[in-house]
Amino acid sequence: MTKKLNNQDIMASNGWRAEAYRKIKNERVDFLEQVTNYCLLGATEEQLGAFFGYDRPTWQYWMKHSQELRDAVDAGSTLADAEVAAAMKRRAMGYDYVRQKLLVDKHGNGQVYDLTDHIPPDTTAGKFWLTNRAPNRWSDRQDHKHTGEVAVDQNITIEFVGARDTKIIDITPRTDEQ
After folding, report:
1. What is the pLDDT of residues 104-114, one digit of tens each?
2. pTM above the 0.90 mark?
3. What value, to the nearest 5°, has the Cα angle with vertex 133 and ends 63 and 143?
4. Dist CA 71 CA 74 (whole Å)
5. Distance (Å, rounded) from C-alpha 56 to C-alpha 61?
6. Angle between helices 123-133 and 67-93 (to 10 degrees)
7. Contact 73, 80 (CB under 8 A)
8. At what angle do helices 7-27 and 31-40 cross, to 10 degrees?
9. b/e for 118-132, b at 16 or more Cβ within 10 A?
10. What is the rounded distance in angstroms from the CA atom of residue 23 to the CA atom of residue 62?
11. Quick one: how many helices (H) and strands (E) in the chain?
């Protein structure tokens, strides 16, 4: 049997959520910093709530009522999105990187050399980057706009045959001139 909640019950349930938020914020000095860092890792609202020991509805309540929490989430999410975008752009264009290699001669003498390797551009990453940056120019989807008019020129005749009389009705589409 489920219990129907009235407004007082709802206010009471939200009251404990508000109190829980005040408590966690006061007990964990680095709470907002942890929220931002966890968002940098790509955490969802459900994962954030679980990380701090609360369910998703509680987390959503906090998000709705706390500007500083929304700011912390936005800061982490925005920075993470920017880093992914930069990595996608780098991969799309190709890049060089330096690695070190140890070469040992037949006498056992080793020497470290710096080698530059080249990662070629990735066309899939490039396509993804362009379709998201400028979808109106690079999208696979094409929108076609049709102009003009369609003229319908037909006459419909309906014949009703009954026991007493036969009726013929002529239905002709109206035009603007009529």
Report:
1. 888 888 899 99
2. no
3. 105
4. 5
5. 9
6. 140
7. no
8. 90
9. eeeebeebbeebeee
10. 12
11. 7, 4
